[in-house]
């Protein structure tokens, strides 16, 4: 597994910033997606998540409540997000959640599961 530390990027023409973190796992996609879809356990393996729980589940996906700390606990964010079932985008199984409400202006968690036949790209 290769983890890229979270990074904060300024938004041009604004005092706002956005953050991004990536994780690359050398495991079968089905094994990785079981972990990613286990929303209630996020705080166990992602230290920025202080809470993540499923509020409701339907055939179309899940609604979650998530709390995240950033900048060494200086910032505390919460969001209620709608997470659809995975779809295929550019050959990768992809999930893009949408913000329902929270104390943030934007929050768009995205996860993609790609299948590589050789080594993991850098």
Key terms for this structure?
122 residues, mainly beta, 4-stranded antiparallel beta sheet, 3-stranded antiparallel beta sheet, disordered C terminus
What is the total domain count?
1
Spatial extent as radius of gyration: 15 Å
The H/E string reads EEHHEEEEEEE
Low-confidence stretches: 118-122
Could you give the order of strands across the largest sheet?
Answer: 3-4-5-8
Q: What is the annotated CATH architecture?
A: 2-Layer Sandwich
Q: Please, what is the average pLDDT?
A: 80
Distance between the termini: 12 Å
Q: What's the total helix number?
A: 2
E-strand count: 9
Largest sheet: 4 strands, antiparallel
Question: What do we call the CATH topology?
Answer: Alpha-D-Glucose-1,6-Bisphosphate, Chain A, domain 4
How would you describe the shape? globular
Secondary-structure class: mainly beta
Broad CATH class: Alpha Beta
């Amino acid at each position: 597994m290769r983890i890229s530390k979270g990074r904060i990027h300024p938004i041009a023409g604004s005092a706002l910033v956005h953050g991004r973190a990536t994780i690359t796992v050398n495991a079968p996609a089905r094994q990785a997606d079981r972990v990613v879809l286990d929303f209630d356990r996020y705080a166990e393996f992602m230290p920025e998540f202080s809470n993540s729980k499923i509020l409701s589940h339907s055939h179309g996906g899940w609604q979650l409540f998530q709390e995240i700390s950033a900048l060494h606990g200086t910032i505390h964010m919460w969001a209620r997000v709608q997470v659809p079932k995975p779809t295929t985008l550019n050959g990768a199984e992809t999930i893009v959640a949408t913000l329902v409400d929270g104390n943030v202006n934007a929050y768009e968690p995205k996860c993609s599961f790609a299948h590589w036949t050789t080594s993991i790209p850098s």
